[in-house]
Amino acid sequence: MKLGIKLLVASFLILNTSPAQAAPIYNFPISGCAVTYGKYHHDYPATDIFANKGCAFVAPITGVIDEVNTVDRWRGRTNLGADRGGLSISLIGEDGLRYYGSHLSKIEPNITAGYKVTSGEKLGEVGATGSAKGTKPHLHFGISYPTEKGIWWIRRGVGLENGKTSPWKYLKAWQAGKDLKPRLIIPATTPPEPKK
Q: What is the pLDDT of residues 79-126, one digit of tens each?
């Protein structure tokens, strides 16, 4: 009897002392849809993730919503940099970095500045607003350091690691279910607004 109890206790301890499976810190920013994306973006370090219109854009990390643009003000004749994202959302992650998604077709009603989101929570839907009008639906995804509101040229994405690296390798890791924290160089002063 004592041997049976000892075996039962030992079995219980072995079965209940395995490492805990923690929820991922990072999530791929599009959920439930097939996607394609490349290593490079046309003229600055960001990534365009192509998916069907309406696919869910989700929070890549737990954090607080920083800026939300619910009105598409982009016009081809002016092509203002601040308006190119169309419907867009940025959030400050619990890792201290800012994550930005734009060209959305829809933003969830509860997503407002100051709202706390959890990793994987739906923020909006993929679209082609802003300067993406007339293109295939996609999520423009950028990672940057936090700045004052309205500094769109940083918000849209900056170079990671060596100052030129796109988010591609981080997206690949998150898509595979691996947590990989972006490494980011923060300059001593904010670069000036670009001419284009």
A: 999 999 999 999 999 999 999 999 999 999 999 999 999 999 999 999
Cβ atoms of residues 117 and 155 within 8 Å: no
Give how far Cα 18 sits from Cα of 11, 13, 14, 25, Å: 12, 9, 7, 20
CB 65 within 8 A of CB 112: yes
How far, CA to CA in Å, does 125 sit from each of 1, 73, 164, 196?
A: 61, 18, 28, 27
CA 42 to chain centre: 19
pLDDT in tens, 58-67: 999 999 999 9
169: left (phi over 0), alpha (psi -120 to 50) or beta: alpha
| Domains of the chain and any CATH numbers | 43-171 (2.70.70.10)
The better pLDDT of the pair 20, 34 is held by: 34
